[in-house]
Every structure is written in structure tokens, then in C-alpha cells.
Amino acid sequence: MTDDAPAHAAADTPTAAAAAAAGKYAPPGSAAEGSEELDSDCVRDIEVTDDRTLRIAERHAFENDAGCVCWDAGLVLAHYLVKAVAELGSMSLADKSIVELGSGTGVVGLTAAALGARRVLLTDLPHVLPQLRGNIKRNGLQGVAEAAALEWGQPLPPPLAGVPPPDLVLASDVVYSEAAVPALLTSLRALMGAGTVALVACEMREAGGDGGGGGEGGDADADAPPALAPALALLHELLPRAGLRESLVPFTELHEDWRSPDILIWRIVASQQPPQPPGAEGGRERAAQQPPQPPEPAPPAPPTPPPAWRAPALMSKRAAPEDAPPELPKKAKMDVAAANGEGMAIDENLHSRQLAVYGREAMRRMAGASVLVSGANGVGVEIAKNVILAGVRALTIHDAKAVDVRDLSAQFYLTEDDVGANRAEACREKLQELNNAVEVSASAAELTPDYLAQFQVVVLTDAGLEESKRVNAVCHAHSPAIAFIRVETRGVFASVFTDFGPAFTTYDVDGEEPHSGIVASVSSGSPALVTCVDDERLEFQDGQLVTFSEVGGMAELNSAAPIKVKNCKPHSFELELDTTGFGEYTRGGIVTQHKEPKTLAFKPLAEALDAPGEFLMSDFSKFERSPLLHVAFQALDAYAAASGALPRPGAAGDAERLLELVRGLAAKSADKIEVDEPLIRKFASGSSGELNPMAAMFGGFVGQEVVKALSGKFHPLFQWFYFDSAESMPDALLPPEEYEPSGSRYDGQIAVFGRSLQARLGGLKAFLVGAGALGCEFLKNFALMGVGAGEAGLVTVTDDDVIEKSNLSRQFLFRNWHIGSSKSTVAGAAATALNPALRLSALQNRVSPETEGVFNDAFWEGLDVVVNALDNVNARLYVDSRCVYYCKPLLESGTLGPKCNTQMVVPRTTENYGASRDPPEKSAPMCTVHSFPHNIDHCLTWARSEFEGLLEKGPAEANAYLADPAKYTESVKSSADAAAREQLAKVVEVLVGDKVSTFDDCVAWARLKFQDYFHDRIAQLTFTFPEDAITSTGAPFWSAPKRFPRVVKFDAADPAHASFVQAGAILKAEVYGIPRPAWAADAAACAAAAARVAVPEFAPKKGVRIETDPKAEAPAVGIPDDDSVIDRMVAQLAGATAALPPGFKLQPVQFEKDDDANFHMDLIAGLANMRARNYAVPEVDKLKAKLIAGRIIPAIATATALATGLVCLELYKVVQGKPIEAYRNTFANLALPLFAMAEPIPAKGFTHKELAWSIWDRWILEGDMTVQEVLDWFEARSLRAYSISAGQSLLYNDIFPRHKERLDKKMSELVVSVAKQTLPDDRRHFDVVVACEDEDGEDLDVPLVSIRFK
User: I want to staple 690 with a disulfide (CB 3.0 to 4.6 A). Which of 9, 58, 410, 1234 is the partner?
Assistant: First the structure.
């Protein structure tokens, strides 16, 4: 394509399955083609109806490199029309006028014509028109369809100008360039009338994705289109400005045989808002990287004419070879799972973090299930959100109520415009957007037994007790039982009840990997004592069951049934088994925990009300609270049934009536219940308000219970859970006027906390660090709570990361089209869409010492609260240090799979986050990883290390040499470091020994690596240490935990060997920029080529040193300290590089775990599994390898929602300035379920005479003091200061005589001259650390000293 040619050519891409289903290819020039259009490469048959098939000619290349083929998105859109018109009759095209944009082959528009449209105009660039006209004629549609040229962004041509707007606009695969979007949008807006509907289909391709050419395994496509994410994000940003609004066509409405989660269809219509020209407000500029200020209202920008669009050649769609159909996308998924979830292909890139928690089997069970959530209030939609993200087959959101403005306090998918609409219908489409593979429907139907029978789980969130008992009875009696969950949130109080039927089986009660140990000895007798090697602590508990394998001598243990253990200690335990008659133990063995399924018998609600059993506790300081709340919630239901309403906020009479009901029920209880009257009055006052933090918390908790019911994974709640955060409420009831509704979205929150607290929330200046999973939830919570939504308020969010596909399964503010965009920008925009009053500034800066110019004194001092949403400890520690320094509250949280924790850090009250640390993770010794692995983790650690060394670090070091050979060589020669000489040897290996020129060379390299790693090195190891080798103490060398290895011989017929060679060759070729032939895509072909490689016969060497010391930190360096050796290597490099072209550079491969098409994980899994095969360690699949080698942190949406809900309940306390007794730190494990809540630990205090301080204090010294004046300041307080330092520099210490010369120098002078710090003009102070002792000579830890020199 020429630089000045418009690029919106062919738009409609078949997968292999789609191509086979669609029809067959006719050879170019065949009689089927007609003769009035350009020569076509092939003709496809597209079946429209049983009696109508379209014949579509494709052209894979024009002279300007733009092809016209039937792309997937076009076929999906065409078959959507077929289903709607011909199969369901839900749409009629009769008498409709239709325009297709970027028609390409015209397959979509011609399908519409064949379905009865009155007039169809196919538009594209002039050079495409002969192809379009030929397809019109070929199908006998000349009287209905015609073709016309249309260049996006230009005035409409005569066939379109001056005529009524079309009824329908069709477009597919037209959004693939940010540059094209404004022009496309201009033409689309010009076509749209008040009644026009546009259907736009788009395939979500990966970055650098295949535009139709090159093919699988072909050469890297230099002209491949970029990722769609930025273009789609821009389109969605500009649509409202163009006076258009869009909604997603539900996945379930697409044709069953022609749909894919990667292909979306949007329905676009004209909105009531007047359009603004695209680009009038500056498009998608990134937020300024400066300290955020409250946003000022922007004046309207003057209209600018839409730009004429000319796409560069980079945007062209590459032509496919002329003698074959175009290569098909690698990861096409045109078939969706069957309803029962069997055989479902789980998108592991999307769900990798969730798969790490649930596993494939549990997710397949979920994928076949249907869920009913009745009650589209705040907690109902939170549950629905989490269940949809988890990946069920279908979810129905059920509600007969209309939207009230109070619903907006907690229901994040409602707006003021929805008031009066059905609550379920109002949020269905937005729920559908969360996961296009889940069928989301809305209903207001009566909950009859027949209706309920279609679901596997029923959740009630807004039903009275009698209705709940009726529905539960139906679910309990159904065969099989329908899991039933009832949840209520009333202000800061909540109740959850579960009934999963009379016999529910959980297959994994805790979700933890079975514990294991390496056996060192087993005694003979009863009970038998088992000891294990002491490199790892045993985690067995008394009463658990274990099994054995690989035990030498006492072989009876290997076949024994699971055995119960007792007297468990860190490195030993006893078996409830008599081993007297067993063989004598000799060596080895693995002992593994045996996890048995557990069956629970649930009672129905009517029975459990009177006999509740044990309650799940959340806060053991409220031990008597659950029985009281059990009767309080029943009393509240009776109150509402009798009065027709809940108690009014602050109404003493209403509270008294509820209190009487509670007393009555408590008196009838079989157990003694003491009625806490102040608590019940709080319960009554806030019961009419639904709070977002409570909805978030219980949306996470109940959402997890739904997953348990569907998957059998984790232990369900059995059966009651009551919770309250009464400490969050004002200590005393407020005056009645405080609770008066304001007619705003915050009325539900005002009913609990009053107007004054709402105003304080609105005025908060909050800093949210991180916009990932936690950050998205926090932003949603802030929007609904009104945090920073007042005139003086502001929420600043920062995150330097961009959105990836794997984020979409839990970071719910992101969509497919956001991939590649800034997290903070997209999340911020989504939050302001939830509440337009939210004042928000989104930055893309990492919070670190390097950005203290952005997050400076003025920024930190202006904050009211900091909320961490981070995923690593170092970042948390840094933010914690800033909060301590500036005395700001920090609300901390984190998740790990189903577990979460929260910590409240309150200035001058609690200890800080950094006051306690988790112990560091234990890593395997180097010699274990390199020579003596005994589990798959060791193998994967080694595999990733080898991957990075071969493909990233080695090539990068070679590039450093190539950039300046003379300088690099001189550096090595002058270095006394053996590591530098070893690096030179690696450069020689990359550029000389392992240099490749052809793909066959790459295959040979991979084959020889296989031989080296899995045969020769193992043969050398077993030669050096034979199986009967003994240590210097006479003990067997190959004793536990060491495992004696065996060589692996290459076998081209072994799929694992073939995959290793294929992945290794492809990645080696990528490093050297070698084109990849078509046959490289076939692992068997690569293996066959590898089998032909000549492999030198291995001969073991004597005297080879193999590291066996577990304390050694690095393998021995084998490069002698000899100048002649270095000279020889330098000469080799000079000879090898002389033949390289000028400017030659290698392309190091950086490990990327989340792209299944890049062969990275194929190679790492191959390396690890072949090494595991050497040592008889169980192998793993690619997903498990990805989780371990990619160090993927397990994550699920439910735990994230729970954590943020808990934190926001604490935020209410921060705003009110509550004492430490009111705060709660929480650890929760949804798998068990378990809650452990406790007061924060107070900050440690120090005293000296009249002085008192903690970590929260700084001593501020006023004036530009000298060193002597600082010493005098301390002397006046009976402290002798003997050392002063700034950063890493010592400014003064009294043991150095020369430092006495500094006594009269200004501290500011020494900070600049000695510590080399810069003091900007706007800086008023600097900090120093002073070491001092008291009168008795005892050192004291005194606060940081700030000298305010200005």
C-alpha cells in the first residue's frame, strides 16, 4: 500500500474451523468466478440459509498490498444476522436500507441482501469496487446491492449524500488503527439518523497480531497491524462526543456455530447528547506527570474539521500467498463449550491467576452451571459480578423492583437515568460486558419450582424470611439439591445462610497443595516412627492421612492404604500402623498427605432458624454477638412484615419497637441471649441503608460460596455467618436532621452515618497507589461512597502498568479493548463513569524515590489518607515510609488466592506496616538446583535460569561487546574479577560456538542442547558419582534428598522431545533474526530434522568438579586466570565478528509468560520436564509450569472484593478519628472459611525525662543551624549527640579529630558538600540521623531530625 493510499480496505478472518464450515475454495480463474472483476485467488461458499448460499470471491493481494478476504469478524456478524432474521425471527431486514463500511468482499452486506434487505450499499476504496461488483453479480443481487467508493472522513459521495439515513450500518474489522478512528467516526456519524442502528464487529487480536498474512510459523511480519486495544479504547472514548452510544451484543445472541469470545459486536445508536467533533477535546492524552491538582472545568474547545485519513503502509493487511488460502489465526476459538462444561477449552491466558486457585476441573464444573441471583441491589450485583468473572455458563439477575435513587449508594451499575426502570434490566448489559462467554439474562419472573429447577445455585439478596423459607424448601427438596444462599446487609450488619442440600461433597476442603516430605528412616514396630530429612519442616497434623511411594526395603508402605498419623513434629511423626512384619527400610521414599472428600448434611432454613448450630465467627472479641444477631435479624424481618418498612434512621420509637421484638425472641431461645440494647438501637437506625463496603465484602464472601457450591472446591459456610462493624458507626445516635435524605445517590449511606460524615468523605484528598485488581475495586467503592466527590475533594490514583489480557478475569473495570492502555487512566475513567461527581486525577508514575519530584512535600502534606493497592512488599514499604514521614493514615491490604489481609496504619496510634516482616522465602541451594533436584520446583527454577542465560543474558552481553569491542575487551583484561572473564566466554559462545545462520542450524543447536542437558551432563554426573558412591563419612552419596538420575535419549517420536526442539529452534532463530520456514510450525517436522543432526558420542571426563556444597552460592568459574586464554577468546571474536554486517545486533528474548503463542513456556516446560524425567520427578503440564516458573500469584475476584470492603469500613473510622480500640486488622481465608480480626498493635513508644516519642515523630529544628548548634540542642535535653549523618554520608562524628573543623559549619552546607545532596529552591528542610546517648551512656533511638533551614 502506498503511503498516500487510504487503508480502510477489506474488512470482514476465517479460522480453520470456520473455513471448513463455510465452504470450499475454488481455484483462481475458475468458471465460478465471473469475468467482470479483478482476478480472484479463490471463491468461498457461505451458507446463509438452507436454500441460499453466497459465493464470495477473495483477493489476497492488490498491487498496493491490501487484500479482500472473509475475516472472522465479518463471518460472525453475517451469521448473527442469519440467526436473528432467518432462525429466530427477532429481526427483519425487509424494506430496510443498509450501508456496509469497509466492505472488502462484501460478505456481510451481501448476507443482508440475501436475507431480504430492500437496498444494500457496499462501500470501500475505489480499487476494491471491481471485486465487490463481481461478488454482487456472482450472487445475482444486482437489483438490491451496489458498490460505491467511500473514503472515511470525507463528505459523503452522491449515493449517500442527500438521501435519508440508512436503517442499518454494518462494519467488521474496521477498527485497527488509532489514526483511522476519527475519520471512521466522522463517516459513521454522518450516516447515523435518529433511527439508525450500527452493528460493528471486531476481533480482539494480540499485539503485532496477524492481519491475515504471514501465517502460523511464517516470517515475522514487519507490517503487521498493531494491537487493537488503543484504537478500540479511542473509539469508545470518542463515541459519546460524537453523540453516539454503544452496547455490547450478548455473546449468547450470536450464532452458536459462529462465535468466539475474541470477537465482539457492538450496537451503536444516536444518543440524545449533541455531538462534539472527534478530537475537539484533545483525544487520549496521558495525564500530566506532575503533582495532581483539583481538576478545573475545561472550557469548550472550538470545533475542528475532521482530518482526512491516510494510513501508512504499516496499516495494510498483508497479502497471503497467491496459491493458497490465507493462513489462519493461531488461537481461533469458533466453538464454545458445551453446556455441561465438558471439553471446554479454558482460556488460560485470561484465567491463569484463577486457574492457579481452582484448577481446571473445578473451572470446568463452573463452566457448565447456571446461577440465579435474585435481588439486583448492591450486594446482589457484587455477587453477580464475581460469579460472572469466575466463568459460569449462565447467570440470571432477577428483580421485580424499580430503581430508586437510594440504590445508587451500593449498586455500581445503576445511574440516575435508570431511576424507575427495572433493577435487573438496568444492569444486565453492563454485567454482560464483564465476561462475554457467560450468558447473562435479566428476569422478573415468579420463583416457581419449575423456574428454579433450571439453576444449580439460587442466591436471595432482597427477600423476606417467609419467601426465603419457601424458595429454600424447593431447592432443598429438588433432586439433585439446588444450592441455596440467603444474604442480607443492613447498614453495617450482615447475615448469610447456606444450604447446599442434604448431602453435599467438597472435594478439597482447603485448596492447599498436599503436604509432603522426603523419608529418611522408618522404624519397625507399632506405632512406626517416620523421620524425614531436615531441609524442610513437615506440615502434617495429628489425625491426617498419608501415603508413601518410592520407599526402599519396606515396600509394603508403597501399596498401603492411607495411614493416619499422630505425634507430628517438625521432622518426624508416628504411623497408626504396625510395621513389625514389613521388610527392613533401606533408603528413600516420599510421604504425601492424602486429602479425602468431605460430605456435609445441611439443614433447610426453616429448621436451621430454630437450631442454628455453630456460627462462623469473625471477631472473637464479640463472642456473644452472633446469637444476638441471629434473633435481631429475625426480629427485623418481623418488624418489616408488620410495618411495611424498616426502622427509620435515628427514630428512637422505631428502635424501641424493634428492641421489644428482639427481647421476645431472645426469651424464647433455647440458649441464653443477653440483649445489648445500644447495639440493637444502632442496628435499627442503620438498617434501611445499604452500604457499598458491606456490599463489596459480602459480594466477595457469597460469590465464593457460589463457586464452592458449583465446583466442590473449598469448604462451604456451614451454615450461618453474622457480621457487624458497629465500630464504624458514630458512637452516639445523631440528631434527626443528620439522617434526612438529600435526594442524592448517597442517601443510603446518609441513613447510616449522617450528612456531616458524607460531607467529610466528599472533601477527602485520597491517594490510591495501584490500579490493578485491588485498585479497581477501591475506585468503585470510592465512587459509590462519594470519596473525593465534593468540591474540595480529590482522588489521585497512580499506576505505571498497562492492561494485559490476564487482568480481565478480576480487574473488572477493564475490557478487551483496553488491553495495552494505562491502568490508572482506564480505571479512573471507568470510576468517573460510575459517579460523574468523582473528582479524580490519574497518573502513570511509580511511587518510588525516583519520583519524589512528582510526589513531593506539597503533595504528601496535602493528603488526608493513603490507600495501598500494591502487589509487592518493597513498594508497600516505601509508601509506608512516606506515610510515617508525613504522618498520614495508610490503609493496607493484600490477597493471595482465597486469602486476604488488611492492616490499618493510623498516625501516632498504631504500629506502621514495616514494623513487622514476614520471614524471607526459603530458596533451594544452588547445588540442588544445578545437580541434585528432587522436585519440579527445582527443575523449573533451573529451566528459567537456563532460558534467560541462553536467550536473554547471553545475547545481551554479546550486544554489549558488539557495541564497542575494543572498550569491552579492555574492560575484561583490566578486571581482576573472574566473573568478567566468564562473561567474555559467554560472548564467545554466542557469537562463535553457538552462532547460527539458517533455521536448520537452529534445529541442530536445539538438538545438541538436548543432548548436552539431558544426556551428557547426566552421564558425567553419574560417572563422577556412581550409584554406589559413598561420602567421606561412609554414608551413601545418593541418599535422601538426592535422587540418582538417568540419561534421556532423544526420540523424535516423543512429543515432549519434539516440542523442546521446535521451541528451542524457533527462539534461537528469533535471537539471530533468522526467518522461520513454514515447516517450523510442525513439531514433528522439527523433530525429524533434529533426528538427522550428527551428535558426537559422549566420553566422560575424569577430574570434573561438580559442586555439592549446599552453602555455595554460585557454580565454580571454569575460566582460568590466564591472559593467553583471554587473548585467544578475543581473537576468536575478532574473526567471527569481521564477517558480520555493519550494525549487526542480536535480539535478546525477554521471558513473557502470558503469551501462549511465543514458545517461551513451551521451552521452559520442555527444559523442566526433561530434567524431571532425568531424576524421576513427576512432570507437569504447561499451565503448572507457567504458574511456577512465571511466579504467578494466585488471584480471584472474590478475595479482592472482600479485602476492599473491609478496608473501606475502616475508612469510615479514619474520617471520624476513632480510637485504636475501634480499628480492626483482618486475616481471612475464604477457602475454609475463616476470619481473624483483631485490634492493631499500638505504636511502640520511647521516653527520656520529659520527652516521649514513637516512630511517628520527627524532631524539627528551626533555622539554618551549625553542627555545634545541633549538638547544643540535644545537650539541652540531657542527650549527648556524637554522630550526625545524611543519607549514606557521615557529616560529623566525635571520634574523628578532623570533624571538629565542621562544628561551626552550617548543616545545609555540609549536606550539599559532603552528602552531595541537592536542595531545590522549593525545599524548606532536610533530614539527618542523629546518634546519641543518655546520661548513663546508653544509646537511645531518637526520631529522625528535620532541620528547617528556610
Answer: 410
